[in-house]
Amino acid sequence: MGLAAGLLMFGVILILCRVLPAHSRWVERVTQTPKRRLLAQSMVAGLIGGMTHILLDSFMHAEMNPFWPFVEGNTLTGMISMGALHIGLAAIGFFGLIFWLLLRESSK
C-alpha cells in the first residue's frame, strides 16, 4: 500500500505542476528536479509512511499482525497507553513541522 500511495502521490505532483501557475516557486523547483528522482522520492516516502503506519497502529489495534508471516498475533498492543501514544504522535508532528520550516528557510 505504501508503494501504491507513493506512486499516486507522484501522479498528483505531476498534475499539480500542470494546474498551478507556472511562476510558482514550488512548480519551478519540481520541474527542475528530474522525474526519476521525484518518482524515487515518492516511492521511498510511501514505503516509509506505510511501514511506520503499520508499526504505530500496532500499538493501538489488537487485531493487527504487524510481523506476519514471521509471528502470529500482536505483542505490541498495550505497550503504550492511548494517551501517551497520542501525546507522542502530536509531539513528533510538532517537531517535524518545526524541522520542515527550518529546512524551508535555509533553502531560500
Oligomer: single chain
Give the CA-based shape: flat
Task: Work out the radius of gyration.
Answer: 18 Å
Number of strands: 0
**H and E order:** HHHH
> What's the rounded overall pLDDT mean?
89
Quote the distance from N terminus to C terminus.
Answer: 34 Å
* Poorly predicted parts: none
Number of domains: 2
Q: Can you summarize the main beta sheet?
A: none
Structural class designation: mainly alpha
> Total helix count?
4
Strand content is under 5%
Helix content: 55-70%
Structure description:
By secondary structure, this protein is mostly helical. It has 2 domains: 2-77, no CATH class; 78-108. It has helices at residues 2-19, 25-32, 35-58, 82-106. α1 (2-19) crosses α3. The longest helix is centred in the C-terminal third of the chain and has 25 residues, at 82-106. The protein is flat, with a radius of gyration of 18 Å.
Short description:
With 108 residues, this protein is mainly α.
What layout of secondary structure does this protein have?
Blueprint lengths: L1 H18 L5 H8 L2 H24 L23 H25 L2
Helix pairs in contact: 1-3
Key words describing this protein structure:
108 residues; mainly alpha; 2 domains; 69% helix; flat
